[in-house]
Amino acid sequence: MRYRASILNNFCFKIIKIIIGLIISVIIVRQFGAAGNGYISFFILVIDTLSTNNHLGINDAIIYFYKKKNYDKEELFQTGLSFIIIVSIIISAAIIVSRLLHVFFLDYNLYIILVGIAYLIIKSISIFINSFYIADEKIIELNKYTFISDSIKLSGITIVYLLDYLSFEVYFTIIVINQITLVYMQMINLKIIYKFKYSNKLLLDELKYGIFIFIGSLCIFLNYKVDQFFINIYHGNFELGLYSLAVMFAELLFIIPQSVKTVLNGRLLNIRYIKGDNTTYLSIKITFYISCIIIIISICLFPIIIPIIYGNDFILSIKPAIILLISVLFASIATVLSSYVVSLGENKIQMLFSFNTVVVNIVLNMLLIPPYGIIGAAIASLISYSVYSGQYIWFFLKKEKCSLDKIFILKREDLEKIGILSPKR
Q: Please, are residues 330 and 388 in contact by the beta-carbon 8 Å criterion?
């Protein structure tokens, strides 16, 4: 019952998050245009890449060591957070030095760099703390805190926009305040007081376990983001601004499998026998059919709403947005199934699948983006996500000894489990 409640809560929360994201995107595009949107997108892209991937597998290991190995929660917290802070400070120092030496971020002033560093550190901490909420299946509580912080972000951006004070510096300041609010609420309700200390043995054990998951997750993260780096290099901020809008719509759809995965991770790590459990089957079906419905609606609406809301410049975003939405349908299946693979302890398999996918993606981006721009990037994503999904489906069918219809065909009992139909009497 808690699993279903968490899934439903996550979907409702993600819908609200989609609405907030759309409103903010309209404000940013109206204020800064396509080139300005690309300017912001590239900076956030780099900072998000660093903050999301600086844990080296610690975040993945925490859930396993806490729930499967019964390690002390406070020891895991103190050791893990100390490691995250140290790594974040090292990365921050590297960013400052590279900027002072005129190597990187030359188009961004020192204030934006410093605010970006603050965002990097605080977001890294937030992502780390998320692991404990997921492990304890406290998804509803986590969503509540995220909603409050996102509401503050939306309110701040809207107010300064209406007062005509919205600048790049103000925008980045608001997103840092948003992250600080979120971390404060997470820490208060986690009820652990942080002290800078760590266990070398525990840290090494976590790194040994989590490094393969980390490499796999890093490859998939790059698979989602590397096209934007290539577009910025070959075609500049204007095309990146157009493509970023298409990516935003695709990422909004990607919220669906991510919300299922978040709940599924906690669920699978809290049950004893994973193979044969119907939770994964049901999660795939929920993700697939809801994504299909949203894609069909989006394909019909995009040609109408994008020019009206974002302006005629963004008509060029429509085709890549549609291609990326279809790509996410494939990626969503693999995202859900990755929880199944990790819960079986098959970390090397996940790493291999992710590595294969990112290699295909990088090669296709190098071939297609220079001549075809954002359309080429979208096609590269479609092909690589198909490869990504195909590997996981093959693995799942082999492990479960089942056929495709069992993971894609909805049955009456599935509809009963999610509450659409009442059980037969």
A: yes
